[in-house]
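<derive_structure_tokens>
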Amino acid sequence: MPTTYSKQDTITDAEATKKAYRPSHPKLFEVLYAEGSFNSQLVATTAFKKGDIICKIEGTTPGPKKYTTVQVAKDLHMELHSDLVFLNHSCNPSTLLDTDRMQLIAAVDIKQGEPLTFFYPSSEWEMDQPFPCWCGTDGCCKSIQGAKFLPRVVLERYVLTSHIRELLEEREASQQ
């Protein structure tokens, strides 16, 4: 897998960052770097139809829970080591990050140039760095802390990974 530029909290020189950038999946998507904190985004470089497997998730390594990892099991987080680390959150996501099959799947038809997003609580039980959501979509959760903090009625709108479904069942069993 090509070397990729690691995710930075704050970019002060977007042009220099872009010059250093080596895309991991150049025919599928690219990172649009923007100055400031957490302003960069991943966009499609080709169109995808709903249900398309955009790419396999490969080259991951286990790591401690942090904002750049993705939860893939109840007690396991993975570093992505690819441009997928730039998938931003949306309460109306364009993709599904399927950590059970290790695939990124188009949740809707996606046009070239459109942002690729996923619903973080679909794979994250408790976020390392919770944040306010500004996606502005209908049904926005407003605060993204992880699936642990959302009611079942909200989570039922999304495709959830098996470990999130399992943790949700455990939460509900403990409340009875």
Observations:
- The first strand starts at residue 10 and ends at 11.
- The CA atoms of residues 49 and 109 lie 4 Å apart.
